[in-house]
Amino acid sequence: MSDSLEELQEFHWMMDMLQTVDVGIVVLDRHFQIKVWNAFMESHSGLLPSEVREKSLFSLYPDIDPSWFGKKAKPVFELKTRAFMTWEQRPYLFKFPNYRPITGNEQYMYQNITLSPLTSANGTVENISMMIYDVTDIAGGKKQLESLQVTQSEMLERQQRMN
């Protein structure tokens, strides 16, 4: 097999992996125009990649504050460092419905998000990747545990007052 054919095959495998991984992958340019929208994002948003490509993240998701998001993304572009958003700071960036409504108590998908620089061949960062992880089960479990702890503390306080 020639080198170019092998490279093409490897590229095809990588693209297939990006589409089938159970993580949202979005690539944004410096103007926050969407360049890549994988199958996870398509499935949870109901929007096809062809519908979002070259559109502004903020026009599609007006609930995302451009100033806030820009501050999060600035060090990713300028310092080539990753940035993180956790569900404890902000339950979700994309208001996707919880796709397990019977087993889960949460209305929306809780998300952890990682922003990573995508360095071009000349060493500059013109695009960043955003990886969206569904952490609804983890968040729901933690919230239930905290609720049980509060209930237990209240019961202990009542018991101590009665004695």
Q: Your description of this structure?
A:
By secondary structure, this protein is α+β, with helices and mostly antiparallel strands. It has one domain (3-136): 2-Layer Sandwich (Beta-Lactamase), CATH 3.30.450. Helix content is 45%, strand content 20%. It has a five-stranded antiparallel beta sheet.
Provide the descriptors you would attach to this structure in a database record.
single chain, 163 residues, alpha+beta, five-stranded antiparallel beta sheet, PAS_fold, PAS domain-containing protein, PAS-like_dom_sf, PAS
Major beta sheet summary:
5 strands, antiparallel
Q: Round the Cα radius of gyration to an integer and report it.
A: 21 Å
CATH fold title: Beta-Lactamase
Low-confidence stretches: none
Question: Helix and strand string, N-terminal first?
Answer: HEEHHHHEEEH
- Based on secondary structure, the structural category is alpha+beta
At the first level of CATH, what is the class?
A: Alpha Beta
Number of helices: 6
Task: Show the helix and strand layout.
Blueprint: H1 3-20, E1 24-29, E2 34-37, H2 39-45, H3 49-52, H4 57-60, H5 66-79, E3 83-85, E4 111-119, E5 125-134, H6 136-162
Antiparallel strand pairs: 1-2, 1-5, 3-4, 4-5
